[in-house]
Amino acid sequence: MISFILNSNSIHTDMPPGMLLLDFIRYHQHLTGTKIGCNEGDCGACTVLIGSLQEGRLRYRSFTSCLTPLGNAHGKHVVTIEGINGEGLNPIQQAMYDESATQCGFCTPGFVMSLAGFCLGQQPPTVQNAITAVDGNICRCTGYKSIERAAARVARLLQQRDGEPPAVFAAEQQLLPAYFAGIQERLLALQLSMNGEFEPADDVTAHYMGGGTDVYVQKPEEMKQKAIRFLFDQSLLNGIVEEDGRCVLGPAVTVTDLQESPVMRSYFPRLDKYIRLVSSTPIRNMATIGGNFINASPIGDFTIFFLALDAMLVFNSGRELPLRQLYKGYKQLNRAPGEYLTKIWFRLPTAQSRFNFEKVSKRTNLDIASVNTAIHLQLAGNVITAALLAAGGVAPVPMLLQKTAAYITGKPVTEKLVHETIAMAQTEITPISDARGAAEYKRLLLGQLVKAHFITLFPQLQVAAVLNNYA
Q: Is 192 exposed, middle or buried (0-12, 13-18, 19+ CB in 10 A)?
């Protein structure tokens, strides 16, 4: 049985764990405020909140229920738009009404739920953070300025929280129903009654499931009846720690976990900038780093990020493999049947390191890459002593440009070297023309992004000489 709390009600169901949470909510619980929109995690009309206990603390995050398997709700608190209603409009809904932030109303439940998630989050209650909370929600008729004004009003409601647990504060201030104040104790009792994590019957053909953000786009019908081993909540597959100059992370770590990690933020000061280029808040809350690797997309953003860090993979078989050796061809993995990731680690940057990630897509945000790239350099003075340059969208697999890295190693950083780097990179890549751009365009993009790497990392360079053809 799958057991969880849905709004204020306890749920125990034997429905297939691979079915979509959205379908369970609408067709089996008849909670139709959660809307069916794109079914690809893009529009946000199906947004719900999922609360879970993390190291004894209750944490809520927004999820797109159209990509969430029912099994990933086990042991958690799922909140739909019906679960935040009170006698009249709550303050979040009132803000949307007062600012004329709704028109046809189809998208409105998703916006309200994302703002409710902001009220239950730990981030500072700034206007910008409130607006960021709805970056996964699309409105096609109202216009976003009124929605931004509503978000700003919600942010002001939280100014007096002053360190109080968000769920308790929200309940006390009647931002959300009073039952939220007792959810942590109910989840503790639920976990004690579950006698361990939910697991399906052993099946050698079982599909290993992380957040589901890609597999449910690609084959949702197939997944509904498939035997699944859920990895998203396994404690041994989570966490980010620093050990002897290495960063060790579980493959079930989400993009949001990465962004919030003190270790990652300490060693990658531009991390927020990088992550803003990747997907939306609810997808970042769900998408796992290990899933990004195993998905084997040639443009996986964090695959490119970690390739440039020369990340190492550890499988449940005990086998250890460099990430650069994982890909044998398009969507082909160097992985034995039954193997799944248990650990990822990489050497942390030093004072002599320089790291940068760049991405170009048709939209600046909320889009998959046309080309993405990351660079990691070690320096002795102005001389490159070691180099890693990764690129996506320019080959059938995410790739390290090893010839280019070898060429620039041992050379001083100059404007001329930037252009030599680009020229060498062009000999290694084999882009194809597709919906994300022509092959020639992708070659141009990679060159421009290499320039961006050097301009960002070496402000002493003459920008005009970098941007123009070096004579």
A: exposed
Q: Rounded to an integer, what distance in angstroms lies between the CA atom of residue 253 and that of residue 134?
A: 22
What would the two tokens of residue 463 be? 């920008």
Mean pLDDT (whole number) for 266-272? 97
Whats the size of the chain, residue-wise?
471
Helix axes 144-157, 108-119, angle to 10 degrees: 30
For residue 9, the cross-strand partners are 6
Contacts of 29 (CB under 8 A, 6+ apart): 6, 11
* Identity of residue 362: K
Q: Which helix (H) or strand (E) holds 145?
A: helix 144-157
Q: In what order do the strands lie in the sheet with 312-315?
A: 240-243, 246-249, 341-347, 312-315, 320-322
pLDDT tier for residue 204 given thresholds of 50, 70 and 90 = low
DSSP-H helix ranges across 179-267: 183-194, 215-218, 220-224, 255-260, 262-267
Whole-number average pLDDT of the chain: 94
Q: Which amino acid is at 205?
A: T
Q: What local confidence, expressed as pLDDT, does residue 426 receive?
A: 97
Higher pLDDT, 428 or 143: 428
Region 132-146: what's the mean pLDDT? 92
How far from 130 is each of 44, 114, 411, CA to CA, in Å?
Answer: 15, 9, 46
Task: Kindly tell me the number of DSSP H helices and DSSP E strands found in the chain.
Answer: 19, 18
What tokens were used for 91? 């303050």
CA torsion, ordered 41, 70, 115, 169, to nearest 10 deg: -160
Determine how many CB atoms are found less than 10 A away from the CB of residue 37: 20
Confidence of residue 471 (pLDDT cuts 50, 70, 90): very low
Other C-beta atoms within 10 Å of 110: how many? 29
* Environment class of 147 (CB within 10 Å of its CB; exposed 0-12, middle 13-18, buried 19+): buried
User: Using one digit for the tens of pLDDT, what is the confidence trace for 56-80?
Assistant: 889 999 999 999 999 999 999 999 9
Token output for 209: 């499931």
pTM score: 0.94
